[in-house]
Specification:
Largest sheet: none
Number of strands: 0
Distance between the termini: 87 Å
Helix content: over 70%
Radius of gyration: 27 Å
Protein name: DUF4153 domain-containing protein
Oligomer: single chain
Number of helices: 15
Keywords: Membrane, Transmembrane, Transmembrane helix
Organism: Paenibacillus psychroresistens
Length: about 425
């Protein structure tokens, strides 16, 4: 039977129309026009008409706006690459600190966020002034590798990362779901950037080999100009793709979180047992304490990534119990690290490094307790997953404030 007549015959059978559409969507769309012309008063076909027509109109408008965003992204990527190359030249001359390279990337990503989600003037002025103040402050610090200067170099990018979150959220910076979206953006950005970077590394290796075959070594020129420019420009491209709701990155991120969470949990349990077995002591071994804190931050990052990618499903699953076990494990690691740093402060006195590590451990401890209590309530059906995500997102500004405090005041105080 002709599909045109089949559509007309099933006007009063919505289930059959839906079945026909799902079975052969293209044929249904082509035949629908005839059925609509023959029955212009049908309410059922009017709904189908709007459904099919709206989808085509929406896609056309989206493509137009994406084209503008794409051009703006391209301009930003080129400017970021050029700026970073100029900054790198002064770093080579030892005129400025290497940490200045972040200003060749983060302000341009922030500019794209502002373009994509225009904020009010007060938010825009805050962003611009804080980026300028940070850049000015960084370059009036003496080029000396003292403890306080190194702490400023480490903490300033953290503060700028939180500032980038303000650019991402725009006028909705107080809303928890927007902060959660920023954390998800970071995870998806990392996955996408790493995927594209691997392709770039393969291209670089191929290029080096091709020029070696003709007796030319272009490695120094290529890395200083092409690789550096490409790596920076790629960050702007990745930000654009993730912000444009790239389906691939958004589909793969939750699966990576589900795969890595149990692996990290098992690895850390084996590692802690091994540490106890071989008798490593973070209370007396300074280098091991620093490594222990590094492990703490890595596991905390994986845990937060897993929580942000877990979604808002009220139904509990195995991933929730794994996340809770990770939180408890990180809490144990933090308690050991905090005890060790308190011991070293009480035994050997206060130094900038010890005070900075002590402060961040206390902040992490408070955040972990909040997350753990929220998880307990969730697992006991006393609250939803949003309470756990709030425990993560509402604490972000505190980390930013602490990073700013260390970066801007430690070189003055000490």
């Amino acid at each position: 039977m002709d599909i045109n007549n089949h559509i007309i015959e099933n006007i009063s059978n919505p289930n059959e129309l839906e079945r026909m559409f799902r079975k052969e969507p293209e044929a249904f769309k082509k035949s629908f026009s005839y059925a609509w012309e023959q029955n212009p008063d049908s309410q059922v076909l009017a709904v189908w008409y709007e459904r099919l027509l709206f989808k085509e109109t929406a896609n056309t408008e989206k493509a137009f706006w994406l084209q503008k965003a794409f051009l703006f992204m391209g301009i930003l990527a080129i400017l970021a690459g050029i700026s970073t190359r100029v900054i790198f030249h002064f770093v080579e001359q030892q005129a400025i600190a290497p940490i200045n390279l972040v200003f060749g990337i983060l302000p341009f990503i922030a500019a794209y966020f502002v373009y994509n989600n225009p904020p009010k003037k007060n938010v825009l002025y805050t962003l611009a002034s804080l980026f300028l103040i940070s850049g000015f402050y960084l370059n009036i610090l003496p080029l000396e590798l003292k403890d306080t200067i190194i702490l400023a170099y480490i903490h300033l990018p953290i503060f700028l990362w939180v500032l980038l979150g303000l650019a991402f959220a725009g006028n909705e910076y107080r809303i928890g779901s927007k902060r959660l979206a920023y954390l998800k953006f970071n995870g998806e950005f990392g996955i996408l950037y790493a995927s594209m970077a691997i392709s770039g590394m393969l291209l670089t290796a191929l290029t080096m080999q091709l020029f070696r075959m003709v007796g030319m070594d272009i490695s120094e020129f290529y890395f200083k100009n092409v690789v550096l420019f490409g790596a920076v420009a790629l960050s702007i491209v990745a930000a654009y793709l993730v912000s444009s709701n790239l389906k691939h990155s958004k589909n793969i991120a939750p699966y990576i979180a589900k795969i890595f969470s149990p692996l990290v949990l098992a690895t850390m349990l084996v590692y802690l047992i091994t540490v106890i077995w071989v008798g490593k002591n973070p209370f007396l071994d300074r280098n091991f304490l620093l490594s222990f804190n590094g492990i703490l931050l890595c596991v905390l990052a994986v845990t937060i990534f897993s929580i942000t990618e877990s979604g808002t499903n009220e139904k509990k699953n195995i991933s929730d119990y794994i996340n809770f076990a990770l939180i408890v494990l990180v809490l144990i690691i933090d308690c050991v690290a905090l005890s060790a740093i308190v011991f070293r402060v009480s035994s050997y006195g206060i130094t900038p490094n010890r005070l900075a590590v002590l402060g961040v451990n206390i902040l992490i401890l408070a955040n972990l307790i909040w997350i753990m209590l929220s998880y307990i309530r969730f697992l006991q059906n006393k609250s939803g997953p949003s309470a756990i995500q709030d425990a993560v997102t509402k604490y972000l500004p505190i980390y930013g404030l602490w990073a700013a405090f260390v970066a801007f005041t430690f070189p003055l105080i000490f």
